[in-house]
Amino acid sequence: MSTRRAPRRIFTSQKRGQPVGRGWRLNQEQQREVQEEKEGERRHDAVPRGTCMSMCPTREIHDREAQSRLHHFEMLAGTERDRRPRADPSRMVKEYSRPAAGKDSTRPSDLRPPAVLQKTVSFLIDDIAASGDLQPWTEVYDFIFDRLRSVRQDMIIQRVSGRDCVAVLEPTVRFLLYSSYRLCGEPLRRYDPRINDTHLQESLSWLMDCYARGQHPNQEEFQALSLLYNLGSARAMQHSLELPAHVRSSPAVSLALAINRAFLERNPVRLLRLAGRLDFLQSCALHRHLGACRRDLLLLYSHGHSSRNCRFPLPRLARLLGLDDPLASQLCLAHGVEVSQDAVVVFSKASFVEPEPGELRCPPFHGLVEQKQRERSVRSIIHGRA
After folding, report:
1. pTM over 0.90, yes/no
2. What tens digit of pLDDT does each residue of 186-205 get?
3. Phi, psi torsion values for 327, nearest 5 degrees
């Protein structure tokens, strides 16, 4: 006869009415939360914090001086012609270096904290870009471009964000926009517009991300600049439509949106008329699109006014194009549009042609932008001062 063994009784400290296993689950959850907090603290501690209080780490100054890798903007006055020029510590700025295997780029003594990064940007603007003694400007651009890239690299390593990040990115964007206008037409060996565009777009994207996380006083200015620089971009337009109402309705953003609508509606006449209301830096942002807008206007008029009996006054066309009469005539002839000796334009859709590559250089057509700079200094343009 088999006997059934009684079930083993498990004694716990569970109180009457308490669900089975609840205490164990709470313990596990608490342990998981504590573990997550510890991991968060470790991640926070893992972010390097810069301790270099000068614009260039001491170790780099010594290395570059010993290797004769000083830029002449950084040399001590009077030693420029020496076999091994000496460094001027007050003008030395950390250069950009590509991350390499085995190279520690997170050493705190090589990283500049946010306050020093802002001081570095101010030095680059006030003492280098705004200096009338440092020429040519292509060399000034190369030096500042490289040193600003190093500043952004230090920011990325230290995960700088918020107002400290915005304080560096805003003048960086202004400098790159101004340079895209000032160096337009330079030989490719001196200035590469594609590289400038890549870094400008990255800086703008980073800046827009900062604006999405908090309120900043210059947001309207840079939202408008982004729209004008990326004229016709569906992504830029979508971003602008998602902005807070007070930003979207600001004068700068409203004007930039109106110009974008004119571009999307293929209305170059309205676009160029609105462009006359832009300030200097906004015009710098738009200027790379002006050639295509003027070409579209001539194509539109070549179809709409295609008649041997139609006579269009050259001065009126020049005003629409935002050019003086001689430049308007040059643009017409390059596109196959006839201009008579008595300053009359004869449009014909059959004669419109695209100009030969390199036939129309951009700088001579900068009048619409150039006239807005007036007496504004480079310092005031990049710092955003009226």
Report:
1. no
2. 999 999 999 999 999 999 99
3. -70, -35
